[in-house]
Structure formats: structure tokens, C-alpha cells
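Session log. Operator J.P. requested a structure for one protein chain; no other inputs attached. Running the standard single-chain path with C-alpha cell output.
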Amino acid sequence: MPIRYIHPRLHSEYSLCDSIIRLPEKPEYGDPAKAPRPNLISRAVELGLPALALTDDSNLFALIKFYRAAEYTGIKPIAGCDLWIADPADPQRPYRLTLLCENHHGYLNLSRLITRAWREGQHGGRARVEFDWLGQAHDGLIALTGRESGVGRLLAAGRADDARSQVDRLRALFDDRLYLELTRTRRDGEDAFNAQALQLAARCDLPVVAGNDVRFLAREDYEAHEARVCIQQGQQLADPRRARDYSPEQWLKPAEMMAELFADIPEALENSVELAKRCNLELNFGKYYLPAFPVPAQHTLESWIRDQSRAGLETRLAARGLAQGFSTDDYRLRLDTELDVVVRMGFAGYFLIVADFINWAKQNGIPVGPGRGSGAGSVVAWSLGITDLDPLRFELLFERFLNPERVSMPDFDIDFCMEGRDRVIEYVADKYGRDQVSQII
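Structure written below.
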């Protein structure tokens, strides 16, 4: 059967203010037969949706879960985001603009816009994008402008000419990657907007696309969604004065139902499918990106870590002596075995970077823990000064830390004195570049 409709805009539970749609915890949970509870992907599979767009509010938190589960179940994942654009005419009321990733370059540009919004554009707890920023990061992105957009706001105010000027500004950036979104969810002002939007689209030769602004999976989830919204807003469900910004129609409707809803505007349905065809984001997983560690000209990362580890081991043994029952050859054999694994798995640079900032801290009077977790089982780490525990003396296993049969990024648990911790972070950022360093929570 021909594909009749693709949802171009949807919020998940990671839009913390207005959605209760869960993402599967594991890719296989996208399979309805395996899912412990209904989630976005399992429901999409039940509905037979071939593609789906996720456009959370000012973030891409759900992207990896969404992407992996969608691909696992054979659904095409479309990545996007609802951004809030600062309105110079009304600083207290930013307007919405939806951006979809056409390709990987668009994904990088969207990431830059979101990052900049949170770092430079926060106002009243909301991350905002200045319109001028779009001029530096619009390639590879498709824009949807709808009822809550700047265009929608101008149409609602009866300023059709200004709305057309806004369309011209957006088209100068996005060209044929600009669409006017229509929704029929029975919300106040929606019908009036749609009527004016269709007139504007005809005057500007602007393609329209049908959306449902999805916030929950099934119609009966509306009350639970409203409770979620009230929690976020600090209001009560029974309060007659609270804003009713959502409707019971904003659920993940089957394509057939959307086709009936927009039967009089077939191009809006066709364009939803066209959008899905245009968006082709490929994400690669399992590859690690590390800053370049500087080594002497005559060395590679691999030869340098072997050189430094062997020299460090001799220093350790001269200072600490041998563990009972072990010879110098036992230590050297263990070291070389570990080095072969580290080099073969591509983690030589990682060990050298960690050793670098730990030894810098020690040399600058910042107390560092002796080693905690599985990393303490590495003779390489002990030889480089990352840890201070002799693994052979305490019968610690290297394979618990790094194992070629279980490829994962090694993780050293490091404890710095809280009074000197900021100095270590500053050192790492200065040495490797602030764009190469981040903190996790």
C-alpha cells in the first residue's frame, strides 16, 4: 500500500514540560511483543508507521534511544527539534520554529543552535535562539513554521503583510526547505490560522504539511498528560483559570485517520511523506573520539605508551619492590600483555591523557586518590602513575577493566581533592582545547 502520511512533529518524555510519551529503554523494546510497557516505537510498529519524526523541546536528549530503537524495528528515524526563537517585538514571548535534520551536516548545525541557546540564550528558564544565529547554522535543516511560529503570531494579529515578510526572511535561509505546518486538533484559533495560512501559502508558493503536534500515544492518555502539564506549571487540574493549551486530539493517530482528517488538502499529506524522504540522517555508534595527545617527533602514541610504561614500571619496582611470589619477569610479562590489548583496542591515547592530568595534579600539590574500581587492576595504569596500587600484590584482574571480548570505553574512577579539582579541569581544558572537553552529570 502507498504511504499516506508521516508524523512530522512529536514530543517525548524528554520534553519535560508537555509530553508523557516514553522511549524504549532498549532497542528491542520497540518490538511490541518484547516491550514491558507501551512506548513510542512499539506503538509506531503496531500502527505500521514506516517513519517518524521526534522534535523535542530545545533538546536532543532522546535521539540515541529513538534512533537505535527505530532502526531496530525497521522504522526510519527523523531527528529534529522545536526551538524557541527570540522575538524582538515581544521579548517575553518567543515563538516556535521546528527544524528537522536533512542530513548529518544539519544534525551538527542543530546541535550548535541548541548548545548556543542554552549557553547564551537562556531567559526565564527557557533556551532561546536569536534569529540571526540561524544565518550561521541553517544548512542541512528543514524548517516547519506553524500556528505557534512568528508567522502564526502575525497572522493571528491580522498582519498578513508582515507574515509574508517573515516567510521571505525564512525562505532566504531555507529556500525550498521551508514548509507551513497545519494542524487540526480542535484548539482555539486553529481553524482561523489554517484558513489564513492556506491563503499565505498560495500567495508565497509555500508548501504546506499536515501535523498533529503529538504529545501522548492514545486518546485516553489525555488526562494523564494534563496532570503532567499541571505538575510542571505548579497548577491544579480543577483550576478553571489555568490555560488549556492542549487538546485530546494530540495523540499518535494512525496514518489512515490523518488522511481522512486532511482529505481536502491532499498536498499536506503528500508533503509529510516527501519530508520523510528528504530527511536521511546517519549516525555511527561505537567509535570513540579523543583529543590528540602530543608525543615526541620520533614516537607514535603506541611506541610512546610502551616506552613510558616500561620506564614507569622500573621506577615502581625500584621504589616498592616485588610482590611476594612474583619475579621482575612476571611484572614485565603482565605489562606487555596489557599494552598489547590497550594498543590493539586503540586506547593508548586515552591512557596517556589520563596519566598526564593525574601526574600534573600530583606535581602541583593536588591530592589524588590511589585508585578505585576496576582500573586499579591495570599494571599499565600503575606504571604510568594513574593508580598507586600494585595489581599483582593484591591479585587484581586487568580483564575486569579492559577486555577485547567486551569492547567498551575504559573508565578510570579518579578522586581529586575538592579544593583543587577546578584547577585540574582548567588544566585539561587549556591543554586540549575547551571544545574538546566537557563534563557529564
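Operator note: The chain has a mean pLDDT of 95.
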